């Protein structure tokens, strides 16, 4: 793994892992930054949450309502398996993608994985008015974010080839950090 500040060359995945994947918590900016990154790298952009919705014809909250989180996770694993086999892609994932070991394995082995590591306080500011994230529709969403961060941060790190620390900086500054790190990790 390399950090964005001091990225070291790690070219072991270059030839067999063309998909660039963003992982991180809800509100880390995977969708926002991923779309712009794809545009700049002349790659296609796909968001796995959007792909699940396109395949089912309903929103993420509806899938959680009807099939529960387990049903959503099964669909997510299928989509991740499909998308990570594609080339010329920037893939923004859902925040819980790292929970399943099978997802972690395909991400780590097939892709260049970038973890957008944003502190819980900032995640809370960005997601507090959004009703589209079923896991945050609880009495204490801020506490939930903190608990999920504690649980998931080691999992994100375990799949990441690059960790990009974020804070209150703009999406543009996040993008610049990612591009810098990628220069050292793969050919685009
Ligand atoms: N660097 C940033 N600075 C300020 N706001 C940001 C930044 N990145 C994203 N945002 C805003 O935060 C919100 C959440 O961002 P986004 O939807 O991209 O997160 P995500 O990582 O895709 O979350 P999820 O896992 O729920 O899909 C959006 O309103 C977006 O505009
Ligand atoms: O963090 C999570 O577990 C989730 C994040 C979203 O991207 C969606 O995938 C869904 O709301 C679950
Ligand atoms: Mg997203």
TrEMBL record:
The keyword Nucleotide-binding is annotated on this UniProt entry: yes
PROSITE patterns noted in UniProt: SHIKIMATE_KINASE
Catalytic activity: shikimate + ATP = 3-phosphoshikimate + ADP + H(+)
Gene3D superfamilies for this protein: P-loop containing nucleotide triphosphate hydrolases
GO CC annotations on file: cytosol
InterPro entries referenced in this protein's UniProt entry, alphabetically: P-loop_NTPase, Shikimate/glucono_kinase, Shikimate_kinase/TSH1, Shikimate_kinase_CS
Residues reported in the UniProt entry to bind substrate: 49, 73, 95, 152
One Pfam family hit: SKI
MF GO annotations: ATP binding; magnesium ion binding; shikimate kinase activity
Binding note for cofactor: Binds 1 Mg(2+) ion per subunit.
Cofactor section: Mg(2+)
Annotated binding of Mg(2+), by residue: 31
Pathway(s) it belongs to: Metabolic intermediate biosynthesis; chorismate biosynthesis; chorismate from D-erythrose 4-phosphate and phosphoenolpyruvate: step 5/7
Subcellular location: Cytoplasm
Keyword Ribosomal protein attached: no
Residues involved in ATP binding: 27-32, 133
One GO term (biological process): amino acid biosynthetic process
Quaternary structure (record): Monomer.
Role noted for this protein: Catalyzes the specific phosphorylation of the 3-hydroxyl group of shikimic acid using ATP as a cosubstrate.
Family membership: Belongs to the shikimate kinase family.
UniProt-recorded name of the protein: Shikimate kinase
The organism's taxonomic lineage, starting at the top: Bacteria, Pseudomonadati, Pseudomonadota, Betaproteobacteria, Rhodocyclales
Gene name, Swiss-Prot/TrEMBL: aroK
């Amino acid at each position: 793994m390399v950090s964005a500040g001091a990225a070291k060359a790690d070219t072991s995945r270059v030839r067999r892992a063309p998909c660039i994947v963003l992982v991180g918590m809800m509100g880390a900016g995977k969708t926002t930054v991923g779309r712009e990154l794809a545009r700049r790298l002349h790659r296609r952009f796909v968001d796995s949450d959007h792909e699940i919705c396109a395949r089912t014809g309903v929103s993420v909250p509806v899938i959680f309502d009807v099939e529960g989180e387990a049903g959503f996770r099964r669909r997510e694993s299928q989509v991740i398996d499909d998308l990570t086999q594609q080339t010329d892609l920037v893939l923004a994932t859902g925040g819980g993608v790292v929970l399943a070991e099978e997802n972690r394995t395909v991400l780590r082995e097939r892709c260049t994985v970038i973890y957008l590591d944003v502190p819980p306080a900032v995640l809370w500011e960005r997601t507090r008015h959004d009703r589209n994230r079923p896991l945050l529709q609880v009495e204490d969403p801020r506490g939930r974010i903190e608990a999920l961060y504690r649980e998931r941060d080691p999992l994100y790190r375990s799949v990441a080839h690059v960790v990009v620390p974020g804070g209150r900086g703009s999406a543009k500054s996040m993008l610049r950090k990612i591009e810098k790190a990628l220069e050292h990790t793969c050919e685009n």
